[in-house]
Amino acid sequence: MEQNVLKKNSSIGAKLWAPIIVFGIVGQLAWVIENMYFATFAQNLFQDTKKYGIDAYYVATTLMVILSAITATASTIFAGGLCDRTGKRKPFIAFGYIIWGVTIMLFAAIPIGFDSSKTAGIIAMLVIFDCVMTFFGSTANDAAFNTWLTDVTDTKNRGRINAVLSIMPVLAMVLAIVIAMFTFDKGFDRIDPKEGFLEGEPLMYKLFFIIMGIIPMVAGVLAIFTLKDSPNIVKDNNPGVLKETFYGFRKDVIKSNKMLYVTLAAMCLIGIAQQVFMSYLINFITKTLGITDYFLPLGGVIVGAAVMTGVLGLFFDKIGRKHFYFPLMAIVVVSTLVIFLMKFMPHSTYLPLLIVLGILLMGSLFSINGALMSSFQDYIPTGTEGRFQGVRMCFTVLIPMIVGPIIALIIGMNTFRPDDADAIAKPDFWMFLASAVVAVLAFIPLIFVYKDSDRLRAAALARHEAEEAAEKEAEEAQATSDDGELIAEPAADVIESKEEPATDATEEPATDAVDETPTETSEDENKD
Questions:
Q1: Which DSSP category does 48 fall into?
Q2: d(CA 282, CA 154)
Q3: pLDDT tens across 492-522, in order?
Q4: Residue 394 pLDDT class (50, 70, 90 cuts)
Q5: CB 10 within 8 Å of CB 156
Q6: Within 13 Å and on the Cβ side, how many CA atoms surround 420?
Q7: Rounded Cα–Cα distance for residues 154 and 57 (Å)
Q8: What is the end-to-end Cα distance of the chain in Å, rounded?
Q9: Cβ–Cβ < 8 Å for 106, 131
Q10: Which residues have a Cβ under 8 Å from the Cβ of 172 and sit 6 or more positions away?
Q11: Rounded to whole angstroms, how far apart are CA atoms 177 and 185?
């Protein structure tokens, strides 16, 4: 069973599933806190527009999202390159998760109920703490864990694994909401439909961040004792650290791996559409829609989306991912458009529509992101897994988390009505119309991804079969050798494949990315 973790193997054993699920869900739990609860926390701090004005409400959230995205991308670029150069993943995951947890706890030190003269200082604390937390999270999860995942999976099981991983944000959201119900939600002054005004308990939100910090720390400790790196990792020994760090941004690499970047372009546009509303989602439900008891409806959405994603994931590997691209994208567009149109509907329709549209929207977003992530991994040339994680972050985190929140900022600043009786800032329905427009643009790169899907799938499967055959020959030759001295010729070829360029026969079925990989990385193509 240990080989399930150490080597690429289409059969998924318990020792492969265990770290994928544990580090996958813990990582997503931490990102849920960063992407949703840090933003909600900042919005709640400045929700009194009479005291702080409307600017602080949106500016704090926008700065946190944008600067943390820049931090995440920069961290992943350098950490991904370092993973390749050292040939190690485990230390970055284990110690990164531990420090990640400590940095989440920093938010417990931020005061609430402060004077308006301290607004700038509080915003600065929010941004700095968020960026510090993001630095360690991106190093541990975005760079190291995703590189490790690419090491131990192949094209035959990536659809299933990424489908499961795409559910992790959903499950993490459920866990975060449950913990928040008894901690975070009680930290601020609020209006309860039954009990009226309730005064906040600051210690409860502090407890929330402390609990959320302990979880990744425990995961990091587990990684020290349980996680194993693949023995087939190909170290990057090319000279020039800086050059190799920015490998994925070089013109020749982009030219040689066109479809990899087209796939990332599709993920980028989908990410922008999601980030327009994601940071404001909880307050949109509780304050704009007025659904203060949001656990059950949001829980229903999350469970429904998880089931939808899981079921679709089973078909991704069996019949091909390409058949789902356009239907899922169409559901995203229609769902966001109808949520916008709820603005003109009776309040009584909000709850049922929220549940139905929420399941369709979130399920489609998670599913299509999981499918495109699998295609991205198939396009990565062997031996460059870590260096391409930074490129992925640029397209899936940096750009979406800059453009999306700016769109939300512009909409929020222009739709707020200061003459409202309560003067409480609320996210507006117009965010979802903007999201629908951006989602439509994602069809453009998806067309090219769809057209190349059959070639990619066939090439990736052929490469996998060639790798399996080579490994089998090596094992058979080793078994018949006398004290390791009489190794058969095929096995020697496999052993030396890491040192010599791949033959034409091996390169022929490779992906678009592998076919045209620059000379300095072509030697790594037969990693397994």
A1: B
A2: 37
A3: 444 444 444 444 433 343 444 444 434 443 3
A4: confident
A5: yes
A6: 15
A7: 45
A8: 18
A9: no
A10: 25, 28, 29, 31, 32
A11: 9
**Amino acid (one-letter) located at 497:** S
3-state helix, strand, coil in the chain (%, to 5): 75, 0, 20
List C-alpha distances in Å: 74 to 40, 196, 255, 301, 437: 25, 46, 22, 33, 29
Q: How far is CA 430 from the centre of its chain?
A: 25
Q: What is d(CA 488, CA 409) in angstroms, rounded to the nearest whole number?
A: 66
363-390 tens-digit pLDDT: 999 889 888 988 888 888 877 776 787 7
Closest CA to 521 of 508, 502, 493, 495: 502
Tokens of 249: 């941004």
Are the beta carbons of 139 and 76 closer than 8 angstroms?
yes
d(CA 465, CA 439): 37
pLDDT digits (tens, 9 = 90+) for 169-204: 778 888 888 898 888 887 765 555 454 444 567 788
Q: How far apart are CA 152 and CA 231, in angstroms?
A: 10
Rounded Cα distance, 456 and 354, in Å: 38
- How far apart, in whole angstroms, are the C-alpha atoms of residue 21 and residue 97? 15
Global model pTM greater than 0.70: no
Q: How far is 25 from 168, CA to CA, in rounded Å? A: 5
Cα separation, 381 vs 514, in Å, equals 5
CB 367 within 8 A of CB 309: yes
Closest CA to 426 of 248, 286, 262: 286
How buried is residue 112: exposed, middle or buried, by Cβ count under 10 Å (0-12/13-18/19+)?
A: middle
Q: By C-alpha distance, which of 10, 312, 319, 320 is closest to 154?
A: 10
Joined tokens for residue 176? 């975060």
Q: How far apart are CA 58 and CA 475, in angstroms?
A: 60
Whole-angstrom Cα distance, residue 195 to residue 174? 25
Report the half-sphere exposure of 360 (CA within 13 A, side-chain side): 19
Nearest to 138 by CA among 219, 88, 94, 77: 77
3 state SS of 285? helix
Nearest to 173 by CA among 61, 278, 65, 273: 278
Q: Using the structure block, give the residue that is written with the tokens 């058949």.
A: 323
Question: Which candidate, 173, 187, 190, 166, places its Cα nearest to that of 48?
Answer: 190
Say if CB 298 and CB 358 are below 8 A apart.
Answer: yes
- Helix (H) or strand (E) holding 190, with range, is strand 190-192
Do 439 and 332 touch, CB atoms closer than 8 A? yes
- Tokens 């490779």: give the residue: 510
CA 215 from centroid of its chain's CA atoms: 18
Q: How far apart are CA 309 and CA 366, in angstroms?
A: 7
Q: What's the residue count for the chain?
A: 528
What is the C-alpha separation between 137 and 72, in angstroms, rounded? 8
User: How many C-beta atoms lie closer than 10 Å to residue 267's C-beta?
Assistant: 25
The three-state secondary structure class of 263 is helix
Q: CA-to-CA distance for 245 and 196, rounded, in angstroms?
A: 56
